[in-house]
């Protein structure tokens, strides 16, 4: 049985108010691929979103598993005058935007108390974690016309026994009630709003851009952690993550006490420092 395409009423109202487009296929291989292929046809802020993505990909071309009807796959088109440094921040900025969208869902749950709310944080460079488990991954790709497609995959109502990995979670597992279609609309509306507001600030530069980067650093749970870092050349090291520099690189301190930035790598938060 196919999953009906959700109507995304809140998101649609926001998108259309901005003069952008919202495309909601019942099913698709990849929302990022769809928007990349048609980027030139859509204005800034346009969105492709579905609850049935069959061929999603993450960083390093890894396959991203998305249970039908229980996971939001969404891509937002960013067409803004961003310099290379600001573009490098987009995965982190998108992670912060999704972190805020997720946190709001516990606020929506009347029975949730401050004490029972989980810790939601950004993991460098592009994940959102709930109590240390992956809720969302972000993938940014540059289209042929120079715009950037910011993709996100969010586990909404996936039950614990159907999560793609032992280190994953979903909003439902983390205690957020609701139907997938309703959660998808609320999450996507908030995510898009926060993302585009941050893009405006990055494009403005100066104090506005600095404030965005400071906000991201504050939400980044990688900073201050002992991490395992897998580098593109296949080497692996353990180090302390001590910051995110102005280029968006993670700054690490190795066993000799030397610090250096790392632009690309896979990070695992270690339980003990």
Notes on the protein architecture:
The chain is α+β, with helices and mostly antiparallel strands and 273 residues long. Helices cover 29% and strands 26% of the residues. The chain contains five helices and 14 strands. It has helices spanning 9-17, 31-37, 84-108, 180-204, 206-219; strands spanning 22-23, 47-50, 56-57, 63-64, 71-78, 120-123, 127-130, 133-142, 148-155, 226-230, 236-244, 250-253, 259-262, 266-269. The strands form three sheets. The protein has a seven-stranded mixed beta sheet, with helices on both faces. The longest helix is centred in the middle third of the chain and has 25 residues, at 84-108. The chain is globular and about 55 Å long. The N and C termini lie far apart (48 Å). The relative contact order is 0.15. The model has no long low-confidence stretch (mean pLDDT 91).
């Amino acid at each position: 049985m196919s999953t009906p395409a959700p109507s995304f009423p809140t998101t649609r109202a926001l998108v259309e108010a901005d003069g952008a487009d919202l495309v909601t296929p019942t099913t698709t291989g990849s929302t990022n691929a769809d928007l990349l292929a048609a980027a030139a046809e859509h204005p800034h802020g346009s969105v492709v979103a579905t609850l049935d993505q069959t061929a999603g990909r993450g960083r390093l071309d890894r396959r991203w598993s998305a249970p039908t009807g229980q996971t939001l796959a969404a891509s937002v088109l960013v067409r803004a005058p961003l310099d290379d440094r600001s573009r490098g921040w987009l995965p982190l900025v998108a992670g912060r935007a999704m972190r805020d969208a997720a946190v709001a869902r516990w606020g929506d749950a009347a029975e949730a108390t401050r004490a029972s709310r989980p810790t939601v944080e950004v993991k460098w460079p592009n994940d959102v974690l709930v109590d240390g488990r992956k809720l969302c991954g972000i993938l940014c790709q540059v289209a042929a016309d120079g715009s950037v497609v910011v993709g996100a995959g969010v586990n909404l109502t996936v039950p614990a026994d159907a999560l793609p990995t032992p280190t994953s979670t979903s909003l439902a597992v983390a205690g957020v009630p609701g139907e997938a279609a309703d959660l998808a609309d609320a999450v996507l509306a908030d995510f898009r709003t926060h993302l585009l507001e941050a893009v405006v600030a990055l494009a403005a530069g100066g104090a506005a851009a600095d404030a965005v980067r400071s906000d991201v650093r504050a939400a980044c749970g990688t900073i201050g952690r002992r991490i395992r870092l897998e580098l593109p050349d296949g080497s692996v090291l353990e180090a302390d993550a001590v910051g995110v520099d102005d280029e968006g690189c993670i700054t690490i301190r190795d066993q000799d006490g030397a610090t250096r930035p790392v632009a690309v790598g896979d990070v695992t938060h270690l339980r003990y420092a």
